[in-house]
Automatic annotation (TrEMBL):
Pfam families: RuvC. Homodimer which binds Holliday junction (HJ) DNA. The HJ becomes 2-fold symmetrical on binding to RuvC with unstacked arms; it has a different conformation from HJ DNA in complex with RuvA. In the full resolvosome a probable DNA-RuvA(4)-RuvB(12)-RuvC(2) complex forms which resolves the HJ. Its cofactor is Mg(2+). Keywords: Cytoplasm, DNA damage, DNA recombination, DNA repair, DNA-binding, Endonuclease, Hydrolase, Magnesium, Metal-binding, Nuclease. This is Crossover junction endodeoxyribonuclease RuvC. Binds 2 Mg(2+) ion per subunit. The active site is at D7, E68, D141. It is found in: Cytoplasm.
Length: 199
């Protein structure tokens, strides 16, 4: 499975691509950070991010996109910009029929370091070890993008099992409702049959 990890942001947007192997084996294929100047109009900044992301998607052809989930408790302006960048990325993926999954920062930290409250330096250190990189990825946005891709690679089997379980539960619910509806319909028709036979 080929996963494109994205750490969304307006000023810096981290991009990475990882190939998963057997078990927990993961191989880094590419990593970069897209930067947009703060003085540039918002629409142009989003366009720059969109262009870069679409180029990556068309070049690397990932099977899935892993994006960091935005939290409302962050600085309002930062959260808004991050959400806008994430939306542009999700849209580009949808146009290419690529699955998109969102992971919280704590999920990513826990997957990579074993600690959902780990600091950025610890995440960077573990990403470097896991991928056996010769040097630490910089800036932190690059390491975060790689961590997101690693997180999804390792969590994908569990996500698939959860989706399968949810689908089975939904199928059972619909079957039960159909049976219940049929029973109610049959119950309503019984008095009518009895009154006709009495006459």
């Amino acid at each position: 499975m080929r996963v494109m990890g994205v750490d969304p942001g307006l000023t810096r947007c981290g991009l990475s691509v990882i190939q998963s192997g057997k078990g927990r084996q993961v191989i880094a294929l590419d990593v970069d950070v897209v930067r947009t100047p703060a003085e540039q109009p918002l629409a142009h900044r989003l366009l720059s991010i969109s262009d870069a992301v679409e180029h990556w998607m068309d070049t690397h052809r990932p099977d899935v996109i892993a994006i960091e989930r935005v939290f409302a408790h962050q600085n309002a302006s930062t959260a808004m910009g991050t959400a806008q960048a994430a939306g542009v990325i999700a849209l580009a993926a949808a146009r290419r029929d690529i699955d998109v999954h969102f992971h919280t920062p704590s999920e990513v930290k826990a997957a990579v370091t074993g600690n959902g409250r780990a600091g950025k330096s610890q995440v960077t250190e573990m990403v470097t070890r896991i991928l056996t990189l010769q040097q630490k990825p910089t800036p932190a946005d690059a390491a975060d993008a790689l961590a997101l891709a690693i997180c999804h690679c390792w969590r994908a089997p569990m996500i698939a099992r959860m989706a399968e379980a949810e689908a089975m539960a939904e199928a059972q619910r619909r079957k039960y409702q159909a049976t219940l509806k049929a029973a109610k319909t049959e119950a309503k028709s019984v008095p009518g049959r009895m009154s006709r036979s009495a006459t």
